[in-house]
Amino acid sequence: MVLESCPLTDELHKYRRKKILLKFPALINTCGHDYYLSLWKYLSHIPERFYFRKAYEDIREYLNNIQKNDPLTLSNILKDYGRLLVLAFKSLGEVNLLKFHDLALPSNEFDLMQFYDNHIHPTYLKLTEGVFSNLILPIAAHQRIKRNAKLEGFDLYQRGEELKRTPYRYLSDSYNSTVRNAIAHGKVIYKQRDIIYQDKSKSVPLPSMEVINIFDDMVDTCNGLALGLQLYYFTNVKVK
Questions:
Q1: Apex CA 65: angle with CA 149 and CA 18, to 5°?
Q2: Dihedral over Cα of 137, 177, 163, 57: its sign
Q3: What single string gives the DSSP state of each residue in 155-170?
Q4: Which of 116, 131, 181, 233 is the most buried (most CB within 10 A)?
Q5: Is residue 194 in a domain?
Q6: 3-state class of 203 per DSSP?
Q7: Can the peptide bond before residue 71 be classed as cis, meaning omega within 30 degrees of 0?
Q8: Do 194 and 206 meet the contact criterion of CB atoms below 8 Å apart?
Q9: Is 21 within a domain?
Q10: Is pLDDT above 80 for 180?
Q11: 2 in a domain, yes or no?
Q12: pLDDT tens for each residue of 50-65
């Protein structure tokens, strides 16, 4: 079966390609395919278009520097952790499609508690474990290799610790291990205007609005990292 092009679709794609190339000019001379049309969501969709710009710029620059100075190590990292990166993109795509991102918060205290239980907490857990922990792997693993440290058992906590030794430690600002542990193990206590998160080592009380800010920052950080990784692939990897 031969698929004929649609004039309306062709014009739409032409318009979007132009806008994407204006936003990300690095694609102009380095990307020989149209797969970059997938970046349109970072110009127009919520929450993607609120991506953390510094995260996007820094991971892309970091990958480009390794590509220039230590390409074999980078190739091995991307190969060894390719499955986890694919999982991260898949999980982030699912999170970005959730309908509550641009909804107003409930004003009723009980409804607000339900909103956290049904939306904020499970999604934050998914972001930290399935998205953030994997998107920081290229930086964290490379730092660990530079220290001649082993990669066995390289979990979320250890990846975050690697970032703390670098100028990229700010990427972990929206990752709170106590909040993550409390959500994962059911140690969340709701108070009026506050939420208390407990794990085996400590208890962290947070104003409910601060939790929203942490969640939003995690979404924006993950989208920034994902965008930076995609730009790296589109400008460096040959598509057959």
A1: 135
A2: positive
A3: -HHHHHHHHHTSTTGG
A4: 131
A5: no
A6: strand
A7: no
A8: yes
A9: yes
A10: yes
A11: no
A12: 999 999 999 999 999 9
Tokens of 227: 């965008």
DSSP string, 15-65: HHHHHHHHH-GGGTTT--SSGGGGGGHHHHSTTGGG--HHHHHHHHHHHHH
Q: Report which DSSP code applies to 116.
A: I
pTM above 0.85, yes or no: yes
> How far is Cα 187 from Cα 180, in angstroms, rounded to an integer?
10
Distance (Å, whole) CA 76 – CA 217: 30
Name the domain count of the chain.
1
Per-residue model confidence as pLDDT tens digits over 87-114 = 999 999 999 999 999 888 888 888 999 9
CA 132 – CA 88 distance, rounded (Å) = 7
93 falls within a domain: yes
pLDDT at 158 over 70: yes
Structure tokens at 14: 């032409």
Cβ(96)–Cβ(226) under 8 Å?
Answer: no
Domain of 218 in residue numbering reads as 17-174+209-236
